[in-house]
Fold:
Amino acid sequence: MVNLNKSLTKRLSKEQLDVLVRSIEEKNEIPIRVVYTQEYWDKIAMDNDYKLANRELSALKSIIKKLAIQFNGKKINIIHLGVGNGVEIPIIIDAFSEKNIVNYSIVDVNPATLAITEKRIAEKFPNQKVRKFLQDIETYGINNICEETKEDGAEINIIFLIANGVLFSNDKLVTEIYRSLNEGDYFFLTLELYQNGKDKEIIKSYLIPSVLDLLANGIKLIGYDPNYKEFTAEINKDENLLKVYYSPTADRSKKFLVLHSYKPTLEKLNKRMESLNFKNIFIEEYQEIHTCAALYNK
Ligand SMILES: C[S@@+](CC[C@H](N)C(=O)[O-])C[C@H]1O[C@@H](n2cnc3c(N)ncnc32)[C@H](O)[C@@H]1O
Structure:
């Protein structure tokens, strides 16, 4: 029996609550989609110690010209998955320009995040047409989003997954991304990679207070009152996953997986994408920040 904190689980939909209970009962795991709330994510996004996002933003800034040149002024749609508060959106719109992005679809499971991101785009880019999709993409996939974006949009969809190794660790979702690509569509990714000897540096971003506050937000749903010392992190090189666990001091026999993020070497990333049939258009590795940016199609 899962010991739910009834006042905190009120913010979850019936469906999210079911996902949470099932995940705890079957694998002692807090699904990340019930954890994010706007205030906690905002705290992380504004935290200078959150180097992970800085690395991925830096990779995006390095590649964005090359990406825009690839489409050479063609009309496109952007489908931005797990957009969060969309810090990277201005970089993307500036590079492609508003006139070439027919639909900018923002997708997230968190309604407050989506509303704020939509408002931010409207303020900075009043002419940009935005479509908003409040959807749990791990449960419902993205096929409908890709189709609806095209209905009144351009013929080319580019699916963006930026700074989102957590969602990218979900094989089912990556397969769904592949399935949702039609001829002429693309998938763009930025990802922090694993690099030998950098374990501590990679893990550090996941154990800073703002991230632990977010993860504690999930643990509190199942009745614990966590402190920072009860969280640990490791990199599992066989699974190519960074994992963060919570284990309460009062009962060390209990251990919950609170986050897993895909951290492959470049070679392993290439193998995974190949095995899923993605065709690589280009991939750039930024060794000093152990991050890459890649463009794929079918
Ligand atoms: C790492 S954060 C946001 C990253 C974003 N690039 C940024 O810097 O703000 C991940 C986002 O994915 C969203 N998310 C997590 N699981 C999701 C799911 N199953 N469906 C849709 N969105 C999801 C979260 O709500 C969160 O806003």
